[in-house]
Amino acid sequence: MSEAEGAPLPAGLRGWIEGAAGGRVVKSVSHHEGASRSAWNVDVACDGGPRPLFVLQDKREGGGSARDAVVLRALASSGVPVPEVVAADEARSAILLSRLPGRSDFPAAEVPEAQQEKAAAHLMTLTAKLHALDPRSLDIPHLALPETPEECAQGTIAQARGAANALGDAADPFFTFALDWLDANVPSKVDRFSLVHSDMGPGNFLYEAGRVTGIVDWEVAHYGDPMEDLAAIAIRDMATPIGSLPRRFEEYAKASGRPVDLARVHYYRALVLVRNSLMIGLGLAHPTEATDVEEMTMYQTLLVRAAALVLCDNLGIDRPAPAGPIDDRVETEREDAAALLGVEPSTLPDAGAIDAALREALSRADGSGEARRADFARYFARRMHRLGEERKALLGPLFERLPQPLVAQ
To answer: What average pLDDT does the segment 51-78 reach?
Structure first.
């Protein structure tokens, strides 16, 4: 594809790339965009021949690409394969990287299953290698080591609460319930503090011939509990299957020499799902011209439904069954919420009244007892199943993708 056929580079970015790479941009192809950054594959003609590069630019303020560049430079000689940082420009919110060999679409129908299994196993080995790095050996000034195990989760909870507060009444009452539970059940144990990618898994690594050639997208990396990365892999598995999670975790345990703490993986899976659902919601509330609202709504629906289901897992209760076809979702919500709250359905005339009643009940600590928490968790899981059913056409094949149970091999 020529540059004319693809999305053009923004004004000013071409000259910066040419100056940094020492050649002329002869081709650029818009790469599939994420929620926070735009990307292009760029070919630069240099005296020594063509130079394949990759450029990322933030869609909004926040410094994601600048953080990514610092982490990539710190990992350059670590043994964890990452792209080389050719240049970074904080004013442009952009980074220019070497373009690694391999493909990012995992799994791919045309790649033999045996090779995909080898690549997935290699990812677990590299994840263990990442977690074994001594944080004191890494030059990442914007990151600080947690002082207590609780701090590994508390920063993410604070980020999620900030997003929920910014959304106000537009945030589903489920998030109030979920964040209160997550806050009250922060893990008080961690084996070690490690550099955590925090979005590890399919889509964020390149592979070929059964090997991972590079791990990318380090903008949300931080020091924390290694179990968070296993939770992230379990989350990404919903949209892009990575195979048997018990097998993947066994491979990680073998490579790391440490057992996998499934209870902490359970917790972090719920926490990251809640955080990511809220962050996507914040992006949808303030979309840019580049925001694909339909795609982001699809992913948010997938994640919030999963969040409600894995919260049931954390509470040790069975997940409610999928909703099935619904004639009138608001009427079904009214009856279900009324039964939960012990009120007459007529007192909940519309969706706004239902949400307000739920928030009022939660503010009274109505869901604080163990049995009552279970009632609320089941209700919110049914509620999110109904949301998924309503958006079934939007979800497409992802409608069937529920989070894998986390069990020992």
So the answer is: 89
Residue 350 per-residue DSSP state: S
Could you say which DSSP state residue 101 is in?
A: S
Of 59, 10, 57, which Cα lies nearest the Cα of 35? 59
Q: What is the pTM of this model?
A: 0.91
The Cα–Cα gap between 409 and 407 comes to 7
Structural domains for the chain: 13-98 (3.30.200.20), 113-400 (3.90.1200.10)
Burial track 332-364 (b if 16+ CB lie within 10 A, e otherwise): bbbebbbebbeeeeeebeeeeebbebbeebbee
Lowest mean pLDDT among 124-138, 160-174, 364-378, 384-398: 364-378
What phi and psi values does residue 210 have, to the nearest 5 degrees? 75, 15
What are the tens digits of pLDDT across the range 216-250?
999 999 999 999 999 999 999 999 999 999 999 99
Our CA angle for 226, 231, 235, nearest 5°, is: 150
Cβ atoms 253, 259 nearer than 8 A: yes
The token pair that represents 103 in the structure block: 């493909």
Distance of CA 22 to the CA centre of its chain: 35
Q: Report in angstroms the alpha-carbon separations of 173 from 101, 276, 352.
A: 45, 16, 11
Neighbours of 292 (CB within 10 A): 12
Q: What percent of the chain has pLDDT over 90?
A: 76
- Alpha-carbon distance of 277 to 160, in angstroms, equals 9
Residue 270, token pair as written in the block: 């719920």
Using DSSP's 3-state secondary structure scheme, residue 228 falls into helix
Angstrom distance (rounded) from CA 226 to CA 131:
6
Which two three-digit tokens encode residue 360? 């009022």
Helix (H) or strand (E) holding 128: helix 113-132
CA 336-339-340 angle, 5° bins:
85
Residue 25 near residue 9 (C-beta atoms within 8 A): yes
Residue 293 scores a pLDDT above 80: yes
